[in-house]
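Please complete every field before forwarding. Incomplete forms are returned to the sender.

SECTION A: IDENTIFIERS
Entry label: holo-356
Bound molecule: flavin-adenine dinucleotide
Molecule representation: SMILES string

SECTION B: INPUTS
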Amino acid sequence: MKYLPNEKVSYLIIGQGLVGTWMSYYLSQQSLTFKIINDAIIPSASSVASGVINPVTGRRIVQTWMIDELLPFAIEAYTQIGNIIGEALIQHAPIIAIHPSEQMKESFEYRLTHDNVYLAQNKMEDWIQYFKIPFGTGQINECYWLDLNTLLQKWNTKLKLDNHLINERFEMDDLQILEDEVQWKNITADHIIFCDGNNSMQNEYFNCLPFAPNKGEALIVSIPGLPNTHIYKNNVSIVPWKEDLFWVGSNYEWTFENDLPSPAFKEKMIVALDSLLTVPYTIVDHLAGIRPANTQRRPFVGKHPYLPQLAICNGMGTKGCSLAPYFTKQLISNIENGTSINAEADVQRFSQLFKK
Ligand SMILES: Cc1cc2nc3c(=O)[nH]c(=O)nc-3n(C[C@H](O)[C@H](O)[C@H](O)COP(=O)(O)OP(=O)(O)OC[C@H]3O[C@@H](n4cnc5c(N)ncnc54)[C@H](O)[C@@H]3O)c2cc1C
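SECTION C: PREDICTED COMPLEX
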């Protein structure tokens, strides 16, 4: 990568996972100048995620935070970015809930008749040729599957072609904080936005935030004949990946020694798949990643309270697919126009933790 002498941009973005991708999308939509620094060698949560937007969560099957606003926003956003790169990135894929126990079946049936928006009954007979179903099935509508790998790769190519991408590791020692701007190597920028996932935990300006990284793994499995029009959920999720491949996972580990795939997870998934599927399957890959989660389960979005040329968009946890487009747009609008950031996501809620 050749640098122009003393190049000046409005924004420097660190990281091109889901968050950096959306940040650069909204900057280009507003014709704002930017460079995005990404090191493809550093593991990213976005590249191992299943890409599901599920409007309900938990054993009580309640609606997820802000879903009424986030879901239509995400559908529109993924459709638009897909149009730009010439790919259909978002697919409506209802979840077939294969109840793992009598208790979960009762919980589903209770929610069907109490404050229900997304749940429906379905025909168990449609699925019996693929699955062992001792406790019946239900359906969760308004779920979506995103082809994240195509999004990240094609957007990366576009960033390169448009001369926005710097493919190298960002080191804090190379950053100078000037009075109203920042300088990185020979680039001066009005703002730097950290979209570097878990690496922000080492960032001296934002490491006071209550990060709580969470490890997750998945198997990539070939299941010939299983329709890739739906997502299947029992104790494990089976999510379309590409062609006859499915993503199978996951686990949520708060304590872990490394970010590598573990034999214990693979064994657990084999037991789960053997007790769930009636059709043959073959394991073709095993992935692992660290979710940039936090103790509050809400994103970290906003400017540093004392150094407003520094900002962060992070902490997307298990919900990056729906949160990233919405909150990257909100942050740019906050910086450009002074509009507010949702108070539950705004880093200003931690202002007492930041050093002056
Ligand atoms: C197994 C698993 C399954 C998941 N499934 C889902 C799901 O179905 N739905 C959902 O909504 N969410 C899911 N998630 C969560 C989702 O992946 C995250 O919320 C989201 O990807 C976070 O995106 P990010 O851009 O903040 O971080 P990341 O994707 O980690 O991106 C950070 C980027 O910054 C780059 N980087 C870091 N440091 C530097 C540096 N110093 N210099 C240059 N570049 C740097 C990295 O290379 C990377 O590209 C899942 C996560 C896991 C692990």
